[in-house]
Structures are given as C-alpha cells and as structure tokens.
Amino acid sequence: MKKTVIILFMLFCFAKLSVGGIVPWGLWQVTADAGDEDQKGHWKCNDDAASTTVIDDSGEGNNGILAGGDNTADISQDPGKINKSLLLNGVDDYLNLDVAISDISSATKGAIAFWIKPTNASTDNIVPFSFGDTDADEYLYYKHASANGKMQVYCRIGGVASWTFLTDNVILTSGTWTHMILKHDGIAPLLYIDGASVPITFTDSTDKTAWFSALTGVDNIRVGCRNYNNRGVENFYAGEFDDIRIFIRDLTASDISNLYNSGSGTEDDID
After folding, report:
1. Do 129 and 83 fall within a single domain?
2. What tens digit of pLDDT does each residue of 58-113 get?
3. CA 271 to CA 264: how far, in whole Å?
4. Do 31 and 6 touch, CB atoms closer than 8 A?
5. Average pLDDT score over residue span 4-19
6. Spatial CA neighbour of 12 closest among 30, 25, 29, 27
7. Average pLDDT, stretch 128-148?
8. Is residue 44 exposed (0-12), middle (13-18) or buried (19+ Cβ within 10 Å)?
9. How far is Cα 31 from Cα 19, in angstroms, rounded to an integer?
10. Burial status of residue 16 (CB atoms within 10 A of its CB: 0-12, 13-18, 19 or more)
11. 41, 71, 183, 201: which one has the fewest Cβ atoms less than 10 Å from its Cβ?
C-alpha cells in the first residue's frame, strides 16, 4: 500500500513560487512505496549458500536462522521455484523464524503462504510448518496426514483442540512444487492450493475462530519441524521451500491469485 509522508522543513535558500512571491518555508508531500504493512515476514530464500541467515524482505527485519547439521549447504538451491530455494534434509534441518512472533501475536486474521516441494509426499507425520509453545501443549501446525499426499492442520490451545481439519483430497506430489496458503478470515480457517480453495473436513471444531491472538503461549516458529510441550524439535521435513510469507490480514481472491501467478509464483509485494 502507499504511505504518504508529510515533511515540513525550513528552506535554507528562498524559492520563488510560480505565481510570484518569496516564501521561507516549504511543505513538501512525498509518496513512498512502503510495501504491505500487514506482511510481517517475506523470506525469498535466495540467500548466500555460505550463510545461516535467511533474509526477511518484508521490511520488518525478521531474518530467519537455519539450524541443522548441513544447514549452510541447504539454503541456496538453484533453481528453486522462483530464483533459489531452501532445501531441508528431513533429519535435523529447520528454519527458525521466532523473531516474527511479536509481530503476529495479536492477529485475529491472517495467512501463511509458501511454495513447497516434498521429497516424498507419502512420508507420514512430517511437519512442514509449525507455531508452538516450547513448554506447553499449545500449537498450530501442518503435517502429512497419511501416506497419500493429504495434509492435516491442527490448532490446539491449553491442551484442548480448537480446530483440526484434513484435506479431502491429495494435495501434494513428490518432487512437484505446490503453492499453499492457510488463511483465516476471522471466522474459520481455509486452505488454498495452487490458487484455489480446496475442500477440507473438520475433525475438531470447538472454536474455529482461534488464530494467533488466541495462541498466547506460542514462542517458536519452525519451518521443517515442530517444537512444543517439552518435546524438542521433531518430525523433520524433507523437501524444498520458497517464497515464505506471513500476513496479519485476510488475503483476498486477488491476493491469492497474484501470489500463485498462474503457477509461476512471484517475489513481488501484492499490495
């Protein structure tokens, strides 16, 4: 979105107005492109292969940190989906995005968007993305639901399931890029795959309105594993990730279409 900044300053030399006369003061209006203020993280995954830092291009400064035995070899996969991508080994690699928690903790709406290419879509119980409470039974995370390419997403607060859903159909294929958006409109979560809403079935629906503002204990964000309830990091994901974004607003149909970009993806802002 465009942000208008009004700058008032004293002119050190007098300027003639086009209609005549001289003024010692000037009021200038500057219009700057500030990007999407509700995008609290945008990790393009184009970073130097020798670095463990994954730069946040949203302007929020929420740079991620790679962890794992061969993490410095995994950041720069060229080609990725768009330019380069992040490859995780499914053994001990993950991306730590804890720094973004304070920017999303009060959100009642939002979205998590990324490109994903699983090494093996039939591997059960592995976790591509999670938000967890290190010391308690509270989380929001995705996982492979079974050995058939379906996905299950859980939201649990204070040891009680708020909502859980399972995709009705297969959404992932081994070695194939898929664009995934989990979004919340303030009423209920929805899942979009390759630019289109997909059918889901809720197995828990105690409170479908629950989102980050309700997950008050969440203290970690992981790409490629989960971490909650004193279990440590576990359920590592093998595959590639690209163009990871977190928003604190509901995405429109136009936003979703622009991110998917007819299957090509984009690293541009969508404001």
Report:
1. yes
2. 999 999 999 986 655 555 677 899 999 999 999 999 999 999 999 999 999 999 99
3. 18
4. no
5. 33
6. 25
7. 93
8. buried
9. 25
10. exposed
11. 201
**Cα 133 from Cα 135, distance rounded (Å):** 6
Which residue reads 């979105």 in tokens? 1
Statement to judge: residues 238 and 142 lie in one domain: yes
Contacts 24+ apart (CB under 8 A), 194-200: 194/260, 194/263, 195/256, 195/257, 195/259, 195/260, 198/167, 198/168, 198/169, 198/171, 199/167, 199/168, 199/169, 200/165, 200/166, 200/167, 200/168
Cα angle 168, 115, 235 (rounded to 5 degrees) comes to 70
Structural domain span for residue 20: 2-33
The tens digit of pLDDT for each residue in 221-233 reads 999 999 999 999 9
Q: What is the pTM of this model?
A: 0.86
Report the number of distinct structural domains present in the chain. Answer: 2
Q: What percent of the chain has pLDDT over 90?
A: 76
**Contact (CB, 8 A) for 162 and 130:** no
Query: 73 phi and psi, to 5 degrees?
Result: -90, -10
268 in any annotated domain: no
Beta bridge partners of 180: 114, 193
Place of tokens 């990324």: 114
CATH of the domain at 108: 2.60.120.200
Res 23 pLDDT > 60:
no
d(Cα 39, Cα 16) in Å, to the nearest integer? Answer: 43
Q: What tokens appear for 227 in the block?
A: 């971490």
CB-based contacts of 30, cutoff 8 Å, min separation 6:
4, 5, 6, 7
The yes-or-no verdict on residue 249 having pLDDT over 60 is yes
What is the phi/psi pair of residue 263, to 5°?
A: 95, -10
269 within some domain: no
